[in-house]
Specification:
about 475 residues, six-stranded parallel sheet, elongated, binds adenosine-5'-diphosphate
Length: about 475
Amino acid sequence: MNIFFVSSEAYPFSKTGGLADMAYFLPKSLNEANIKTRVITPYYAQIKKYADQMRYIGDKTIFVDEHEWSFHFYALDYGLTTYYFVQNMHFFERDKYYGYDDDVYRFAAFDYAVLELFSLINEYPTLLHLNDWQSAMIPYLLDTKYRSKNCGYQYIHTLLTIHNLQYQGSYDKKHFKLFSDTLDYTYIHFDSINFLKAGIERATKINTVSPNYRNEILTQNYGFSLDGALNNRSHDLFGILNGIDYDVWNSETDPNINHHYHLKNVIAQKRAIKKDLIKQYQLQKDVNVPLVAYVGRLADQKGVELIIEAVEDCVQNSNAIFIILGSGENHYEDQIRHLTHRFPHRVANYIGFNESVAHLIYAASDLFMMPSKFEPCGLGQMIAMRYGSLPVVTETGGLKDTVIPYNKYESSGTGFSFMNFSAKELKEQLYTAIDLYINHKIVFNKMVRQAMKQDFGLKQVGRAYEALYKMILEA
Ligand code: ADP
């Protein structure tokens, strides 16, 4: 097998969320299993700091519609994985990764560049693993423009992984000439160009990042208007649960914390880390109260409005303390700052993206809120469990697949969950969890250990993808 993994972000070079993590750990675990896997990703401005470790591969210039696009290709070996970077300064060397008016051009260009790379290096994947809308036009371009070029392209199989169906790459159809001479309904959805729909129509197989989300996206409620297209391909649609890298998320070696821990000393060591955090963020000084955390994007999907309402309520009706790390929609950032302003010793925040602070928060916290409206997989809750912080989650998508809800009759579980996306239900579960932490320590601590023992490691993720790749190649 010769796999190329295409991703619009890849840890440690670029990251806004879970996709970047997967672009790091899946190729790593496949390479460890001797399945040659390389990554192709844009060369963003932020990646320049790695420039002196890169080797220049070559250039390509293509003509699309009336545009002339030039790409420079670089490669870098990081661990066992080779990363190819697609450089086009105009398109990619900007402050942010996404969210520009010309994203349709940027990622159309990226998709062509990926395909051009193979003829440049004269190596063609047996399987091209695409991720999310940013690379979802590739199967269409491959079928309509590249397969006929040479037999290298002819036999490429494609897998499209959908990490989040909400983001589809939908643009005015006036740009259709970027993809075909005449309008083709393969990529049209509700009268607009839709990258993801093209991928759903044309990829050899499709998968999402948890079994439960795989079933949810076939319904109108979670299908984001693509449930019809997905249902047409339901036999080719799979769900593989994501995982986390236990080398990166390891409480015994984590360089971001001053007190390391494992199952046997977790309770005492976490208290010491909590004490550090309380001091650093000037929270009230009692380590005997639960520290409740959130780390993640400040987006509607993540239930941030529920978090804000619940935090305000809990601050007034319990003794819990809170810390929120995230960035995203401005109004959420402002509301969170306002909470800290009103309750400076009860609610701390860090508005921004900071890996190191994230590690500290997972390790210091006792509870971790993740009340998502929908959640394809979710890594936050898995990391939290690994670090002995019990997640409080909505029963949706991958959250339902990964968190075992508290069972008061058996004194067991790895977290707390609620069915409906509502602040009321989040609050109920938070109060239950806070009560357990304060009044039923033995049960709470038993759950902490049960959570830490869960295995969301990468080996099984790698094995599951390997099996899917084999199935695709043998079909
Ligand atoms: P999504 O991919 O939808 O954003 P996930 O839970 O799958 O959500 O993955 C989020 C990942 O990004 C986790 O590793 C989380 O710790 C990290 N993360 C999110 N926001 C931040 C932030 N502001 N600072 C540091 N890490 C963050």
